[in-house]
Amino acid sequence: MCYDCAPSSGPAETATSRRSFARFLAAGAGLTVLAACTPEAPGALPPSSGSPSASPSLSPSPITTTEATTAAPAPPEPSPTPSPSSALPRQFSLTNPASPWLIVNKRRPLVPADYVPADLVQPAVASTVSGEAAMLNSTTAAAAEEMFEAAARDGVAMVLASGYRSYGTQVATYNGYVASRGQADADTASARPGYSEHQTGWAFDIADGGGVCSFQPCFADQPAAVWAKANGHRFGFVVRYPWMLHPLTGYYYEPWHLRYIGVEAATDMSKRGINTLEEYFGVGAAPGYP
After folding, report:
1. For the segment 162-209, what is each residue's pLDDT rounded down to a tens digit?
2. Helices 223-231 and 138-153, axial angle in degrees (round to 10)
3. Taking the CA atoms of the chain, what radius of gyration do you get in angstroms?
4. 236: left (phi > 0), else alpha (psi -120 to 50), else beta?
5. 3-state DSSP: the chain helix, strand, coil percent, rounded to 5?
6. Would the pTM count as exceeding 0.90?
């Protein structure tokens, strides 16, 4: 796929730009910012999800950021300009964690911050994780089962690589990044506790059946990622953090991170060519924390 969307004067310049960008990612800068969903903390930190001890009842350790230790601010109100989603006959809350239209980003924290879905279940799909990381809310789980089955019929092996992540797990993960890299860099690699879509049960990460390029930029070219991008809307899913739209979403390209919003909304986004939830629901860009 093309990794350089800037206009060029000719094929030679385009090839040079692509090679330059590929070297940039290989050097590690791209992998740092592309790790927001990776359920592994740096260094010797234990896995952030998948362990039986990392359960919704885990007592969170102190969080190293000022923002995370204070009461979460109320999410900003949607833009007064009608959003594309307003044309749909059914409307859902953008702030209720139990709503498929919930918007969580760096400007819109979960309320309450330690929210736990009431209906976590383990979908009957191939998975590389266990424990809480293998769970999703019941609606997302059912849709994932249908999607994985459809992909298999098309000869594509899709695997669940990271599902639900509790508040306590996110505390440990984020604090590990802060201790290892400092807060500024941690904010490019891990969501702050209470700001992660994984905590909602509405989102999960996928991997290819062969494990190729997991949580790496090259995953975008693997069969599972290509299929999910083209067909995910049929089952209610969108690629939450698209290519080159980090100024809107706050995260760099994550072709592995899928988010359930419902078939109607996902299909409408696909037909309209709208790629981010921020644009579709009219809530404004979230490039960073306030």
Report:
1. 999 999 999 999 999 999 999 998 887 789 999 999 999 999 999 999
2. 120
3. 18
4. left
5. 40, 10, 50
6. no
